[in-house]
Amino acid sequence: MKLSKRLFSPVAALLLIGVMAGLGRAAYIGHKDPDMPVFLSVYPDAKGTAIDDCATCHRTGEAPVPGDPLGRTAQVNSCDFCHAAMKMNNGKPLNTLNPFGREFMRHGRSAAALKGMAALDSDGDGVSNADEIAARTLPGDPDSVPSMPLAPSVTLTLDQMIKSLAVIDVPLFMNVSKSPDGDRYDDLRGFLLIDVLKAAGMSESATSVDVISVDGYAKTFTIEQLRVMYPQSAPVFGLGEKELGECWIVKYFAKGLVEGAPLPPAGVMLTYEMNGEPYDSAIMVPETGKLRGSGPLRVTGPQMIQPGPPDLSSKAPESCNDVVPRVYQYHRDGYEKNSDYCVKAVVALRVNPMPKGMRAPHWQPDAMKHISGRSLIVYGALDKKN
Fold first, then answer.
1. What is this structure's pTM?
2. What's the first-to-final CA gap in the chain, in angstroms?
3. How far apart are CA 315 and CA 91, in angstroms?
């Protein structure tokens, strides 16, 4: 691993018009969720705000912490909790709805149901659902109330971080589940995420951080996870397209890979370059809800449970099992998919727990500005305000 204070060379001009037209908080479109479009048909002014989000109907919860030697759990965001609940229940959905979501289901899961619920107070915090929605606070969360003051927040730009933080260069092995890009070895440049949080004024009471993408997807890391440098496995060669044709497994982009020599330890990072190039700034395809491009800021994490080898994509042709040795065939549970720890187009870091009696700032309408301005907002358990 190489530490550097080298200044970031200017990136190519952003396609701002495309970014402004293509971005929005709509990760649920990619999940083919039928309910948020119904919600927006009743409350169209909520589009692109804090409540244009899965957390409007889904709750946070406890989930296992990857790599924790004691098998401990931690409170995670609603996205992670849904995914963890499915895994803990053998792929079958569990009830991850909050009080507003449950009431929506009981009333018929329709536009008429939402209208009939407007005067109710689903989360029992003394404010009606309609008033919470108008104020852009969560109608299913009693700790999100319009009268609460805003939690501390700090905006950090990439240029500021480059000037004030240690810039780290490290090769990273990425094991993916179903991406057509396959497993890969890349050279990444960025900062340890724990250093970013310290620069923002993270409180000593902080327990975790939610890393949030411009499309609303979120990933929770405990502060303990962020303090660890995790060992990586040695690169495995001979698994590329040249050797295996359509059954290729790996792309080798990182320089200086040595067979049998483990990659250097790596931590959870906020990165801005991959293989010597800045990330393409993200735009979202409205029809699919999928992001195109990963930047300008992306969080990456190494394998935390056990360094492991590459394996086939879950979408590889069945015939590849006759070509590829069993050790490199698809292993969903046997091999740790650290692509699960990566978040594209990061625009916000929520430091938990939220200070008692405070609520999150409404940063969502400015999400596109963070993309074009190469910046992010950090809020929550901070010891200073901007």
1. 0.88
2. 33
3. 18
